[in-house]
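Supplementary Text 2. Reproducibility record for the structural model of the 1169-residue chain.

All settings were left at their defaults, and a single model was retained for analysis rather than an ensemble. We include the record here because the model underlies the residue-level annotations in Supplementary Table 4.
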Amino acid sequence: MLPALAVAADNEETFIPRKQQGIPGPPLSPQEAIKKMDVPEGFSVELVAAEPDLLNPVAMTFDEKGRIWVTESFEYPRHEPGPGRDRIKVLEDTDQDGVVDKVTIFAEGLNIPSGIAVGYGGVWVANAPDILFLQDTDGDLKADKSEVVVTGFGRTDTHELPNSLTWGPDGYLYGLNGVFNYSHVKHRGKDYVFTCALFRIDPRTRDFELFCEGTSNPWGVAFDPNGQAFVSACVIDHLWHLTESGYYHRQGGPYPPHTWKIESIVKHKHQMAAYCGIEYFDSDAYPEQYRDRLYMGNIHGGCINVDVLQRDGSTYFAKPRPDFLTANDVWHMPVDQKTGPDGCLYVLDWYDRYHCYQDAMARPGDVDRLKGRLYRVRYQETPRAQPFDLTQESDEALIARLHSGNRFYRDMAQRVLAERASPAATPLLQALVLNQSASLKTRLHALWSLIGARQLNDEFSLQLLASKEPQIRRWAVRYQGIKTSNNPAIAKQVQALAHDESADVRLEVAILASQVDYLATLPTLLEVLHNSSDDKLIPHIVWQNLHPELETKTPEYLALMTQAPYANDAATLALLPRATDRILATPGLSVEHVATLVKLLAAHPQQQEQLATCLQRIAEQAQSHELTGDRLAQLKTELADSLSTILKQGPDHPGYYNAANLALAWHDPAAMQIVPQVFASSRQPTPRRIAALDSLLTTEHPKSLELVRHYFEAPENDQAAVGQVIQTLGKTTSDAVPDLLLSRLDSLSPQNRPKAIEVLLQRPVWAMRLLSQIETGKLDKDSLSINQLQRLASTSNQEVVAKVGEIYGTIRSGRDPSRTFVVAQMRRLVTSQPGDPHGGIEVYNKLCGQCHKLHGKGQEVGPEITVNGRGNLEQLLSNVFDPSLVIGKDYQAVNVLTVDGRVLSGLLVEDSDSRVVLKMQGGKQETIARDDVDLMKTSDTSLMPEGIEKQLQPQEIVDLFAYLTLNKPPEDPAAELISGAGQVNPERIVLPQNADNLLTDAQISTNIDHFAAGKRGQPRDVIYEPKLQKFLTKSQWHEIGVDGGADLGVLSKKDAVTWTATWKQPVLVNFITLSGAYPNQPQPNTAWAIEAKVGGQWQTLEQGVGDWYDSGRYVWGWPGAISVPMEAFRVRIFSPDEKTPVRSVHFRGEEGFSWFVGNLPPEDNVVKQ
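Retained model, structure tokens:
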């Protein structure tokens, strides 16, 4: 046992897991945990290993002898690289009873080893920043040789480290990296800068490459029987089919320029979105209905989710099946799942209260370091695995294992055969691949054995390329990307497969097109696309491999697009708008090429919609100033006649409106008339009107602001459209904008007023007008958020900076630490009165929906919050009222200053040589030409502003949380409150017996002596000590007050009766309970205030009249809530008005309840059931 780990046991009761679905309660023993688990009928859960043999397990794998290799991490969540306390263990069951009885430490000194694989003579370990290869050279099962295979992985987010090292069917070692773990691998002369990605390493050559990029924090990769890759991911959709060269939807952060992202393969969701581990289960140890499924560990759900795959062209679509295992224990954290040699599913359990990285970062010393479990889910009396050692088996015996009904043996035998690369095995494997009487699974494993050994010769490859089985043809094509042949016959055969009947085969040809010299890249890609028009995946992959070619091969591309069949093909023509954008963004490429594309589309009446899109892309580049000067003039020369022809055809032509917007860039007379009419017409759809306004403003059309003024005066315009018009006003430099907006500020809707203020802050002259309104008191100082003030204070315009200083003083540069106090206040508010979730929808749409999507509604600027960010009430309160407490780098605001003085703030979508694209609040994207960018800086605070409580009435806040705290829409009968939500009944509160009352160490004082004779009790008599189960002092009534008939006169709040507790050093407080006076003593309208001193200032927690003080109970905060640092605490009693005297003041203690001030962890015995 490591001595430093023993501390955790003493601190166990201080854990505060803020972001968790339920109150954890105490940990269960492994046997107790198994008893609570639910599995399907006929199955049972068995314990394979547990503490102390297994501690903090992160990843696992099996070797050729059936031994289990596990990584353990005591360093998590440490960020610093270097040696640590973590280790690798080998677990063995020597007597075949299903329980580990021998444990060997293979390696120590590691630092969060997040992935492990065994093969090729050693052990591969993800130990950021490195991928290590460890070897035991003397046979004592101890690593004595270490090689750094690859280095450069980040440690910026240690729950997104490189992970899930898994052998692929092609013989590569695959692994994953997360979206917030910024990595820069320099390997063999190449630079790889990436975040979320699936990477791979060739174990023979040590070559490293990115297989594909995207998703979120993927943790778990599995391959189906066809060798297709699937990963489970967190926060966003949970299941993804990953294809080489693809770029997938990202949780956050910018995409590379011109990316056409690929989406997930699911439409459903299981429980909360925290996934870890995935296994494609294919074993005859289970009944048929439990095979050929993906089993995924759901950490927040404490279960194993199940999806079944269906083909959808070259990709897949997944559907849900019932959970395979439910732990019914919030400590259960399934971090890895593997099929064992007995054919059963093994589940590795980290076992901890802390599900979330943020919790571990907040209190790393309280992460449990003393537990860990490994379970086996067994069907009936499935036989135990007998001893074996595949490394000692003959080639023939290993090939026989490729027929096994348990994929464990097929995979393991395949890898051993590939490692051996035995020439004697080659003809046997070739024969099996061609044996049509064998199952396809077996034939593919035989093929993968040859591919892993890199032993496909040209003659056999030609046979495979001509196979009747699509999956074999597909893998024969893929092998050419691994080990390319120079045989012309192979080149001819592969080229012919561009129009193969199988979408899987065509997909591989598209990927190969940019990898080998013998394929003409552009013709091959276009041929594949021409034959795959209805496929969901292939167009994305074709584009991903095609658009880099346009840097140097645009003339060839244009020549091909003028030829049959591509000139008349819907699938190939559909890429022309993207190609237009790509060509325009490439320095040095003539706009004549773009004109050729436009003319090509214009020549095909059936492609007029594509023409319209193409013209829209060009117009947008003109509006963003990406297309200016000589290039714009050249484009006018090339396209003026074509656009004139379109405009003469009138609005019935699909390209009419976009042609007008583009022609306005060079002040075409017809466009000068058409575009204003489009914006002015209420019959036109909003998107078209906004596009017209964009053109009017960027060209400084003389009528633009007059038209906007008329637009604002029209009563029929909906508020969403008005908001878009307001945001578009930032495109003009006119000094008339402040008057236009400031004169209407008070009449704007609550959701549009902030947009108007945001626009006014974009230019210094406008900002000065706005600040002048604030300085003279015409606008409230709270009209500007701290984010906006920080932006103004950092601008290069000194007049603006000086004015901000005059009005607001010094502007802090980071998060406001007092937000924890606001969080506490808001918790009291939302738990003290009922809210209307339907009313909350209105508040959400007005405020939160401008940046977040919930239940399919809202904008995708910040994180999607249907299954993320609302794990419990404390997490939700923190995210809403203290948004800068924890910010992923990709959610930090980026401020851009343009050369003409405009200031923009948003999330970075693209940062390329040609442009910067920001996603603004409300979802609007703003494109700034690179030449227009003067300065770009990342903010230290979240794009989500602090202080939204100032924009809402208390009831609106309560209604909003009534909506946000439901796990489903309010109209859904199954909607339930998330953990910690709902009203609190103080009468049901019982203090936990292990609670520390901070009042016992405080200096207690009261001023009751100054008001009347006959004082009862002493200040400390009301303090209850839960650990002693009695009051702190002996007294008859446990009260402090005056005689029943005492009249203290009229007391102002300043002169109130006060009971005060003061600490020498600030204490953390998240829970306060008080008891009021006896019912026959105070008058019912006594006023009261409960206050805390925070940062040297007294802050009001709550105040009122009567209520709890009249014989009731008061509760503030909640166990496990975010703590507030307090220097002192006090209760004041005073008159409710200038006439009512105060009589019979009493503070009373109540046994088992009050008075109590503490910092409590989540407990399951605070509320009586």
